[in-house]
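Study this pair:
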Amino acid sequence: MLLLGAHMSIAGGVEKAILRGEELGCTAIQVFTKNANQWRAKAISAETASAFAQAWRSSGIKTVIAHDSYLINLAAPEEDKWLRARNAFIDEMQRCALLGIPALVMHPGAHLGSGEKAGIERIAAAFKGIFAEAPEGVTVLIENTAGQGSYLGGRFEHLAEIMDRLPKGRLGICFDTCHAFAAGYDISSTEGYAGVMEEFRRLVGLEHLHAFHLNDSKKPLGSAVDRHEHIGKGAIGLQGFAQLMGDPRFAAVPKILETPKGEDNEFDRMNLGLLRGLAKED
């Protein structure tokens, strides 16, 4: 089965995300388990967890993944901010466990001038403590970034180094197409796509790809600017997405849209329909 969908709002209750995904024919969705721009959140009650589980069981959605708060920076050089981020991430993992969500996507973080080496060391140190305290049933998916400013994760080498420092089986990768392109990885052509995936295989390993974010890019190759565009309407173009959707190596990997939704999710319908068509072209 093609595992394809979009990031869904949890307005009105996290279980509503399942219903919204169903309306679009999604077989996979991504959610926040709390407001992504706030530190504090209402605890997940037994009633909330039950309602979410029931909605999920009754739906055609096979895969749900979560995304953590945008405020969390596990590479922060300042101790108080680093500890706050570490504790917030443990809470994010606990929320996923309560909801039965098996994977949590996160951005590696920004070193804020302390340097790449120091930033990666801070991330690895944070995860060693996190994994000692957080539920084991939730896999952390590190998302590649556009490489803007001091953000880590714009190079495959960053992802490989973080994973090499931590226990096997607790981490995976979420590959964002817009971020990769903005970071200089040209996936817009058949040859370019093949070369990028070969580089990823060599440095990180294709077996670690647990999810994709499907976003075209408003900005050009190597811009280091993260601006999502509708599928086929940006600098990546349809050829790059046709390669990914037709790649049998990733047939079972969930693919999630993070593009503008429009009124009544009209743009999600447009983008999902286009991607479904590309998946059948091979």
